Amino acid sequence: MENKLKEILASAKEEIEKTTKEADLMNVKSKLLGKTSEISSLLSSLKDMSIEDKKKYGSLINNTKKELEGYVNNHLAKIESKSNITFDDTLDYDIKKGSLHPVTIVGREVTDLLRKMGFTIVSGPEMETEYYNFEALNVPKNHPARDMQDTYYLDNGMLLRTQTSDNQIHAMERYGAPLRICAPGRTFRNEDMDAGHETTFFQLEGMVIDKNISIENLLYTVRSLVREILKQDVEVRLRPGFFPFTEPSFEMDVSCTICGGKGCPTCKNSGWVELVPGGMVHPNVLRAGGIDPDEYTGFAFGFGLTRLAMMKYKISDIRLLNSGDVRFLEQFNIK
Ligand code: DAH
User: How far is the CA of 156 from the centre of ligand 1 (A)?
Assistant: First the structure.
């Protein structure tokens, strides 16, 4: 019996090692270990043996079977490792490292500066309710201001937010007063696209609520930010504006960095680009956020981050920013 088992093992080994494909190995396996195999018939012959022989040969036969299975499995692993494409980490690849998107870069710069001024950075949902995007911001249904901010209304009754100003309400509800937050984020509008308009762009909202907050605080904050970020000689002008959620409201414009103020398609030939609208938070907005306007005042502003990136890097066409064109993005080699 011992010799027989040795023979079985030796010839099996030879047969197994000859195979180079998994399918062939599986055929050999079923021949060697299947129901009609020699080892199986030896195992079934055990039942006719005496108890002594059973004890003697039972374990021998079983061990041989296990050894056979071991051969098969080892050989299978060899075949698999040869057929797999392996990763050669000694090869020298020319990996092109990407860079941050220009809007991300300016967004980080503004939030870093605001953080130093004690602002907390928050974020809100891009899919928003009409209430947070409009109503709570003092823009009731049928208010003409909604015309300027047409957007994508979704089947579920929500909309894609037109402004990061929705964060004003979320933040007041969540944190109460006093408050100092900024909220960068993606915003959407149903716009006809041209060099200066896109359906998707980025804003950064800022809001401060405390006792005795004045227009001076707003102007100081916004002016310092613009100066720090653009780091170039731009003229800044302040003019009255209108927003339903601030009273009074302002527009802070910078002279267009692309044409140097002479007039070009990006600035609609005016020489100026609206960069930061803002104003003193309207009492209705404070109330909507659960804050008493007799006790607290506040200011808010909404940086156009996309515009800021365009002015900082002199990008003349807004559509380049969402184009995903690597040749364009490679120029901003800032990690
Ligand atoms: N959300 C306004 C817009 O997208 C911008 C804005 C204006 C934000 C005045 C403000 C603000 O916080 O006070 O046109």
Answer: 26
